[in-house]
Design goal:
The complex is a heterodimer. Chain A is mainly alpha-helical. Helices cover 79% and strands 1% of the residues of chain A. Chain A has a two-stranded antiparallel sheet with strand order 1-2. By secondary structure, chain B is an alpha/beta fold. Chain B starts with a strand and ends with a strand. Classes of the chains: A mainly alpha, B alpha/beta. The site of magnesium ion (MG) has 3 residues of chain B, from helix 1.
Chain lengths: 359, 257
C-alpha cells in the first residue's frame, strides 16, 4: 500500500466522534477565553470593560482603582472560578467513570459533604484551639487539607459500599451516598451548633458556595492542589474507558485496575476537597458538564476529561458573572445560581434516562 | 509452549466450586471446556485469566500468570467473558478500540474495522453498542477480543483466545462463522480455549476437550476420547446416542421419549 493510501486509511479509521470531540475542544477554549475576559471586566465596581481592555492592549497604565479591582479582586476570583469549575466537572466525570454511572457526582454522593465536614471542623474547632496568628498562617493550607481528608474518606467508603466483586450497584451507590451525606451533614450540624456568631456567618456564606472571598493567599495552597489533581485526572481517560466494560474486562485488556481506582479516588478527593475548601457547596457542575459533553461528542474519556475541565471552568465563570450582576450591587452566592441552572437540567437528565436505566 | 493449570481450587465464600482442576491446552488447537450448567466452566476460565483468586498454578508458556503485569498479559491473551455490560453509549467501533488501547500488543488501530468485518459487522461500526441485538453485541465483543491479539503468533510466541460461551447467543450461521474464526486462529498457530455448550459444534471444531462435572475434571484429552456418548449421557443426565456423520466425528443426538 502506498504511503498516501495508508494515511487516508488511518484518517478514515479514527472514530468520527473523536475528531468532533477535538474540534469541540477548540470551541470550548474560545468560550472560556470570552468567559475569562468577561469575568475580569464585569462587576459591581464601575470600571469600563472597553477602557480597561484598551489600556491593557495598548500598554497604558491602569488607575489605582482599576489595578486593585482587576488584580486583587477579579483576577484571583476568575482564577479560582476556573480551577473550581474544572475541578468539579472533572471530579464528576471521573466519578461517573469509576462508578460506571452517569449520575455519580461529588455533590450528590456526599463527597462534597465529606469535604465540607472537614472544612467546617477546621473553621469551628481549630478557631477554638489555636491562636489567631497561627490560624492566619496555616488556615489556607489546613482548610483544603481537612477537606481533602473528608472527601477521601467518603470516596473510600462509597466505593467499598457500592462495589462488590467488581460490579457497582447503582442503588447501593446512590443510597450509600445519601446516607453518607446525611451523616456528615449531621456532624456538620453539631459543629455549626458549637460555632460562635462570626464563625456562623462565615459558615453560612461558605456553605452556600461563593467565589467572593478569593484572594491570592487563599489560593496559595488550594490552587496548586486543584491544578495538579486535575492534570493528573486527565491521564485516567484510557483506563476509565476500559472500566466501562467492568473491572474484569478492564483487567483483561491490560489496565491495572487497582492503580486506576486508587488514582481516581485520590484525584477526585483532592479536586473536590480543594474546591469545596475555597468555594463551599457548588453543586451540579460535575453532573451537567460531562452529561452535555457525552451527548454532543460521545463518552470517550480520553477527550471527555479535558473538555469537561474547559467547559466546567467556563460554566462556573459565567455563573459567577450572573451571581455578580443579577442583584448588583449586592451578590447572589454562586451556589444558588448553579442550583437554579443545574437543578432543572439534572431533572431533565433523569427524565431522559428514566426509560433506559433501571435503578 | 502451552496454557497450563494445575491443582486449581476456587471458593466463593466458604463454598469450594473447583476441587483441584488440572488443565492443559496447546497452541495450534481449539480446546473445549464442556460440562453441565454450574459445573465450574466459567470459574475455571476466570482462574485461567487471573480474574479471581485461586490456589494452584496457572502458567502461560511457562510464566505464572500472576507474575505477568496486566498490560503484558493483554498482549498475549484476550478474554471473552460469558457476559459483558457496557456503561456509556459507545459505538461498536469504539468498543473494539477500547480493547486495543491499553495492552502492549503492537497491534494497530487498523485492525478495528477488519475485526468488525470478520464478525460480519462492518456496516455497524458506528452503531451504538447498546442499540445492537444481544447476538450482535456478542459479535462486537468477539471482534474486540480478536483485535486485541490479531496476529496469532508474534515473534514465534503463540497468542491465545479465551472464550466463555462465544456462540451461545448467536444464530446458527454466526455460530459457524465465529467457530470458523476460532479454528482459523488455531490453524495459524494461535491457541484457543473455549467454553462450549453445543456438543456437535464442539465435535466439529475442537481438537481437545476437558469435561468438567461438579468442580472436577471427569475426562480430558483428544476430542474423540472425551465425547463418548455413554460418559456424556451420564454427566449431562440425558441419554445421548451417536449418529454416524459420514467420515467425520459422529453427531450426538438426545434420545427423546
Ligand atoms: N459469584 C458467585 N458467587 C457464588 N457462587 C458462584 C458464583 N459464581 C458461580 N458460583 C457457583 O459456582 C458454580 C460454578 O459456576 P460456573 O463456573 O459459573 O458454572 P458454569 O459451568 O455454568 O460456567 C455454580 O454452582 C455456581 O452457583
Ligand atoms: Mg458459565
Amino acid at each position: 500500500m502506498a504511503a498516501s493510501d495508508q494515511m487516508r486509511a488511518a484518517v478514515g479509521l479514527a472514530s468520527p466522534r473523536r475528531s468532533k470531540a477535538l474540534a469541540l475542544r477548540s470551541v470550548l477554549l474560545v468560550i472560556l477565553g470570552v468567559a475569562v475576559v468577561a469575568s475580569l471586566t464585569i462587576g459591581a465596581t464601575g470600571i469600563s470593560l472597553w477602557e480597561v481592555l484598551w489600556k491593557l492592549l495598548t500598554g497604558q497604565e491602569l488607575s489605582r482603582l482599576e489595578r486593585t479591582v482587576l488584580w486583587d479582586i477579579r483576577a484571583p476570583r476568575t482564577f479560582m472560578g476556573m480551577l473550581v469549575g474544572a475541578s468539579l466537572a472533572v471530579s464528576g466525570a471521573v466519578m461517573q467513570g469509576l462508578f460506571r454511572n452517569p449520575l455519580a457526582d461529588p455533590g450528590l454522593l456526599g463527597v462534597s459533604s465529606g469535604a465540607g465536614l472537614g472544612a467546617i471542623f477546621v473553621i469551628v474547632v481549630s478557631g477554638a484551639v489555636l491562636p489567631p496568628a497561627v490560624l492566619e498562617f496555616f488556615g489556607y493550607a489546613m482548610l483544603p487539607l481537612a477537606a481533602f481528608v473528608g472527601a477521601w474518606a467518603v470516596m473510600i467508603a462509597l466505593y467499598a459500599l457500592a462495589t462488590r466483586a467488581g460490579r457497582t450497584s447503582v442503588a447501593t451507590m446512590l443510597l450509600g451516598g445519601i446516607g453518607i451525606a446525611a451523616l456528615s451533614g449531621a456532624l456538620s450540624g453539631i459543629m455549626v451548633y458549637m460555632a460562635d456568631d462570626i464563625q456562623l456567618r462565615e459558615l453560612t456564606f461558605w456553605g452556600m458556595g461563593a467565589l467572593t472571598g478569593a484572594t491570592w493567599s487563599k489560593l496559595l495552597v488550594a490552587a496548586p492542589v486543584m491544578g495538579l489533581a486535575t492534570l493528573a485526572a486527565l491521564s485516567l481517560g484510557q483506563g476509565l474507558n476500559g472500566l466501562s466494560m467492568g473491572e474484569a474486562t478492564a483487567h483483561h485488556i491490560g489496565i491495572d485496575v487497582q492503580r486506576l481506582k486508587r488514582r481516581s479516588i485520590l484525584s477526585v478527593s483532592a479536586m473536590t476537597g480543594a474546591a469545596v475548601a475555597v468555594s463551599g457547596g457548588i453543586g451540579f457542575v460535575g453532573i451537567i458538564v460531562p452529561h452535555l459533553l457525552r451527548l454532543a461528542v460521545g463518552p470517550d474519556h480520553r477527550t471527555l476529561l479535558l473538555n469537561a475541565a474547559i467547559m466546567g471552568a467556563a460554566l462556573l465563570l459565567f455563573a459567577d458573572i450572573v451571581s455578580r450582576v443579577i442583584v448588583a450591587p449586592s451578590e447572589l452566592p454562586i451556589g444558588i445560581v448553579m442550583a437554579v441552572i443545574g437543578g432543572p437540567v439534572f431533572l431533565w437528565i433523569l427524565l431522559r434516562r428514566r426509560g433506559v436505566v433501571d435503578l | 509452549m502451552s496454557f497450563m493449570a494445575s491443582g486449581i481450587r476456587v471458593s466463593y465464600g466458604r463454598k469450594e466450586v473447583l476441587h483441584g482442576v488440572d488443565f492443559v491446552a496447546q497452541p495450534g488447537e481449539v480446546t473445549a471446556i464442556i460440562g453441565p450448567n454450574g459445573s465450574g466452566k466459567s470459574t475455571l476460565m476466570k482462574a485461567l485469566t487471573a480474574e479471581l483468586r485461586y490456589t494452584g498454578q496457572v502458567t502461560l508458556e511457562g510464566d505464572d500468570i500472576q507474575d505477568v503485569p496486566a498490560p503484558l498479559l493483554a498482549g498475549r491473551r484476550a478474554v471473552l467473558p460469558q457476559s459483558v455490560s457496557l456503561t456509556f453509549p459507545f459505538t461498536a467501533r469504539e468498543v473494539v478500540e477500547i480493547g486495543l488501547s491499553a495492552g502492549i500488543s503492537g497491534d494497530r488501530s487498523e485492525v478495528v474495522l477488519q475485526a468488525l468485518a470478520r464478525v460480519g459487522l462492518a456496516d455497524h461500526a458506528d452503531s451504538f453498542y447498546q442499540e445492537l441485538s444481544g447476538g450482535q453485541q456478542q459479535r462486537v465483543q468477539c471482534a474486540r477480543v480478536l483485535a486485541q491479539v490479531w496476529q496469532p503468533v508474534v515473534n514465534g510466541v503463540p497468542r491465545w483466545l479465551l472464550l466463555d460461551e462465544p456462540v451461545s447467543s448467536l444464530d446458527i450461521a454466526h455460530q459457524v462463522a465465529i467457530m470458523d474464526i476460532a479454528a482459523q486462529y488455531a490453524s495459524e498457530g494461535g491457541g484457543v480455549i473455549a467454553v462450549m455448550h453445543d456438543l456437535n459444534l464442539t465435535a466439529h471444531y475442537a481438537n481437545a476437550a476437558c469435561l468438567i462435572h461438579q468442580g472436577r475434571v471427569v475426562r480430558r484429552g483428544k476430542i474423540a476420547d472425551v465425547l463418548e456418548p455413554d460418559l456424556l449421557s451420564e454427566i449431562y443426565h440425558c441419554t445421548l446416542r451417536a449418529v454416524p456423520n459420514g467420515g467425520s466425528a459422529p453427531l450426538l443426538s438426545p434420545v427423546l421419549s
